[in-house]
Structure to design on (415 residues):
């Protein structure tokens, strides 16, 4: 006779597992956004400017919700992916712009992401950086080459849980002041803060995130009957991204900014935390960086490969040879920083600024498609959603300008 306690325990575990899986697309997007790129820009922002750029983070999360809600509705109503729709309605040139925006920004992002992960991991454990880079690049390729959507979801749930817990514990150890958080909600851009603000927006309001959402809800098998749940999923991802991002910024603001310390590398944050908050906090931060980096690099390579194969009309089956060959350079991008000696934090922030520059035209494409009756039928965007999308477009144009200016300054300073 089965043990009632074991049956009850198994039943509870199954329900929890089913609940988490039902929000798989949200977890997928959180894993993509909270990567070492966002960690680097948030730590840099907190260290240099305290909480003064929190308002930009809040707005980017609000507009992020607008975009992923719209792209979900578009995917459900049409039954097609964003790249497929763009190819049909804007021609190959329009679709190619979307694919290039994803490929260029995500390849550059993976150079920085895996460079930061490898640097942090190797430095903390006193290992060879190139060997560590090869390990993480190889691991990500194996996960992609031998996985499927359900596997990808489980991988992301694992890493997102680790990074979330790591940074939340750090926040309680750092004790940021409520006053600094409140003041950060007042819009202002301090001198030199434009590129960092653009980088934070670039990691949340990114072209790749819009494209990725379309693939994720499509491959999840959601349809118009899942629209209400998809809305809850969108809100959950926006709220969680803001909370975790604000926590990371607050940790840096309450430690590095207060002490007047500056960082050049992500690992500097961990080394600085050690004397201020103890070895445990510093180790947790390294664990958070690694988990964030692997989840982000994994999704970067995945969405890039999805986009290219979709544009070419090829199968998106990860077990196919062409899929694995296309994924390979995005995984191998992790070796670039170790081989060339580049600064991965600077490269990462530059790639995020590129995301902000690419975004406005994608918002225009989305706005047009979401209002086409031939595409959306009775599910065309409402006046409220259109208004919010236009505001999002204006915000993206402003941040693209800031990114362009800041990127020019960053290149002149570092190269």
């Amino acid at each position: 006779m089965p043990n009632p306690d074991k049956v009850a325990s198994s039943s509870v575990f199954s329900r929890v597992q089913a609940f988490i899986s039902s929000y798989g697309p949200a977890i997928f997007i959180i894993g993509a956004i909270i990567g070492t790129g966002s960690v680097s820009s948030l730590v840099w922002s907190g260290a240099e400017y305290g909480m003064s750029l929190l308002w930009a983070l809040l707005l980017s999360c609000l507009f992020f919700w607008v975009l992923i809600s719209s792209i979900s509705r578009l995917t459900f109503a049409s039954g097609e992916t964003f790249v497929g729709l763009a190819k049909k309605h804007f021609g190959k040139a329009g679709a190619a712009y979307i694919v290039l925006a994803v490929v260029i920004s995500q390849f550059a992002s993976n150079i920085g992401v895996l460079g930061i992960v490898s640097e942090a991991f190797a430095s903390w454990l006193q290992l060879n950086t190139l060997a560590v880079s090869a390990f993480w690049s190889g691991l990500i390729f194996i996960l992609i080459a031998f996985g499927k959507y359900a596997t990808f979801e489980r991988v992301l749930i694992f890493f997102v849980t680790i990074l979330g817990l790591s940074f939340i514990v750090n926040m309680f150890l750092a004790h940021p002041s409520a006053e600094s958080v409140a003041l950060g909600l007042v819009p202002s851009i301090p001198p030199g803060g434009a590129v960092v603000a653009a980088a934070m927006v670039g990691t949340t309001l990114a072209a790749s995130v819009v494209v990725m959402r379309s693939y994720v809800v499509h491959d999840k098998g959601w349809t118009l009957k899942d629209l209400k749940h998809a809305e809850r999923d969108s809100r959950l991802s926006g709220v969680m991204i803001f909370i975790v991002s604000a926590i990371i910024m607050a940790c840096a603001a309450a430690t590095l900014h207060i002490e007047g310390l500056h960082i050049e590398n992500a690992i500097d944050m961990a080394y600085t935390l050690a004397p201020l908050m103890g070895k445990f906090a510093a180790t947790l931060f390294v664990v958070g960086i690694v988990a964030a980096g692997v989840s982000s690099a994994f999704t970067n390579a995945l969405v890039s490969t999805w986009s290219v194969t979709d544009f070419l009309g090829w199968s998106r089956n990860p077990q196919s040879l062409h899929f694995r060959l296309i994924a390979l350079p995005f995984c191998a991008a992790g070796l670039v920083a170790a081989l060339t000696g580049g600064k991965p934090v600077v490269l990462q922030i530059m790639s995020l600024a590129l995301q902000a520059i690419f975004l406005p035209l994608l918002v225009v494409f989305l706005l047009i498609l979401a209002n086409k009756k031939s595409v959306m039928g009775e599910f065309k965007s409402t006046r409220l959603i259109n208004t919010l999308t236009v505001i999002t477009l204006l915000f993206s144009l402003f941040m693209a300008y800031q990114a362009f200016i800041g990127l020019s300054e960053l290149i002149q300073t570092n190269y």
The longest helix spans residues 82-125. The CA atoms of residues 58 and 242 lie 6 Å apart. The chain has a mean pLDDT of 81. The radius of gyration is 21 Å.
